[in-house]
């Protein structure tokens, strides 16, 4: 009886916690049926150790805002829940069944604020072919270790991002640039022309990464000319080069890739 009362109390507290977080974010959608089912399972099986909000307790770590946990793919998390972690006190919950475990993960993702269940309207498979083919994204960017390296790794780029925001970044690449994401043009004293990304710069030196991935540092006093273009190397014609459907396919591929991104240690998101 006491266990039932405790479980019920935890369930109410978990629901109250989520409602409180939702109240701080008016745009947060209501729990889906799977998330609601996951919330109940979480309250009776997980909250006792990890806390009703998933942010840790006396017996288990924070799984709601820890970057290492957020960075794990859904498949990785499912494996942990089903198999447990020997030697840590984390038991196997495989007896719950496949769907209840997936429901718990759906609810956990909501606690984490990770929108891994973003609906995509395009064809992710076609988007993959575009990324590594006609759109030539892989010339500069990589996903899961494949592609170029002068651009940022896009494996989990779309994590938590709205599809429209991802599309805008593709069609308007110069809107939000950091100093290390802009192209510089260098003219050496021997007449050689160097173009690349300004990775580091001070009053005396500039370090540039060229398209072949090489990093080169130059003494600015010995340059014949140095021009900061203020633009990204990203093509600015994708809105006309790609059809509306192709853009949707590309966004869908990036979104699906992010939802299934492998763990990347602490690089993912702040706690």
Notable features of this structure?
single chain; alpha+beta; Cytochrome Bc1 Complex, Chain D, domain 2; SH3 type barrels; 3 domains; two-stranded antiparallel ribbon; 10 helices; 39% helix; 13% strand; disordered N terminus; disordered C terminus
Count of distinct strands = 7
Strand order of the largest sheet: 6-5-4-3-7
Task: Briefly note the structural class of the backbone.
Answer: alpha+beta
At CATH level 2, the architecture of the largest domain is Orthogonal Bundle
User: Tell me, what is the CATH class of the largest domain?
Assistant: Mainly Alpha
Beta fraction: 5-15%
Reported by name, the CATH topology of the largest domain is Cytochrome Bc1 Complex, Chain D, domain 2
Oligomeric form of this entry? single chain
- Can you say what the CATH homologous superfamily of the largest domain is? Cytochrome c-like domain
Choose one word for the global shape. Answer: elongated
Mean pLDDT: 81
Rg from Cα: 23 Å
Percentage of residues assigned to helices: 25-40%
Report the span from N to C terminus: 37 Å
Characterise the protein shown here.
The longest helix has 23 residues, at 2-24. α1 crosses α2 (33-45), α7 (124-131) crosses α10 and α8 (163-171) crosses α10 (244-259). Strands 6-5-4-3-7 form a five-stranded antiparallel sheet, with no helix packed on it. Strands 1-2 form a two-stranded antiparallel ribbon. The protein has three domains: 2-112, Cytochrome c-like domain (Cytochrome Bc1 Complex, Chain D, domain 2, Orthogonal Bundle); 124-171 and 235-261, Orthogonal Bundle (Cytochrome Bc1 Complex, Chain D, domain 2); 179-228, SH3 type barrels, CATH 2.30.30. It has 271 residues and is an alpha+beta fold. β5 (205-209) and β6 (215-219) form a beta hairpin. It contains ten helices and seven strands.
């Amino acid at each position: 009886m006491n266990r039932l009362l405790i479980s019920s109390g935890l369930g109410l507290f978990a629901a109250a916690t989520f409602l409180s977080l939702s109240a701080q974010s008016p745009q947060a959608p209501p729990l889906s049926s799977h998330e609601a089912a996951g919330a109940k399972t979480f309250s009776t099986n997980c909250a006792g150790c990890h806390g009703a909000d998933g942010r840790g307790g006396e017996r288990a770590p924070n799984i709601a805002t820890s970057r290492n946990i957020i960075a794990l793919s859904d498949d990785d998390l499912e494996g942990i829940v089903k198999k447990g972690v020997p030697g840590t006190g984390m038991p196997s919950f495989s007896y719950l069944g496949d769907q209840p475990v997936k429901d718990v993960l759906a609810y956990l993702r909501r606690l984490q604020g990770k929108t891994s269940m973003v609906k995509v309207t395009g064809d992710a498979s076609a988007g993959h072919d575009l990324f590594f083919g006609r759109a030539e994204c892989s010339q500069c960017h990589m996903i899961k270790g494949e592609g170029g390296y002068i651009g940022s790794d896009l494996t989990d780029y779309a994590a938590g991002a709205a599809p429209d925001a991802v599309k805008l970044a593709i069609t308007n690449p110069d809107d939000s640039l950091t100093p290390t994401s802009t192209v510089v043009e260098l003219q050496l004293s021997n007449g050689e022309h160097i173009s690349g990304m300004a990775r580091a710069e001070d009053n005396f030196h500039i370090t540039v990464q060229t398209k072949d991935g090489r990093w080169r540092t130059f003494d600015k006093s010995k340059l014949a000319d140095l021009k900061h273009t203020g633009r990204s190397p990203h093509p600015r014609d994708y809105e006309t080069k790609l059809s509306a459907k192709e853009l949707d396919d590309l966004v869908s591929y990036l979104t699906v890739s992010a939802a299934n991104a492998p763990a990347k240690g602490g690089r993912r998101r702040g706690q």
